[in-house]
Amino acid sequence: MTYNNKPNPDDRSDNVEKLQSMITNTIENMEAAEESLAFTDSETQRQQIQAKNDRRRESIESFRSEVKDEAKNQG
What we know:
single chain; elongated; mainly alpha
C-alpha cells in the first residue's frame, strides 16, 4: 500500500465562510443550552451549562477575530 505524505495545498479561500458557520452554530448551541436551563433542577448542571456557554462566548470572540484577520488577508 502506498501512502501519500504530500500535504494538501493551503486553501484559505473559504475560511471566512467556515468561520461564520462556526459562529452561527455556536450561537445556536448557546441558545439551546439557555433554553435547557428552564428544565434543569440541579444547581451543578446549571453551573456546568453556564460555564460551557462562557467558553462558547470566548470561542465566538476568537472566531470573530479570525474572520477579521482572514478578511484583511483576502482583501
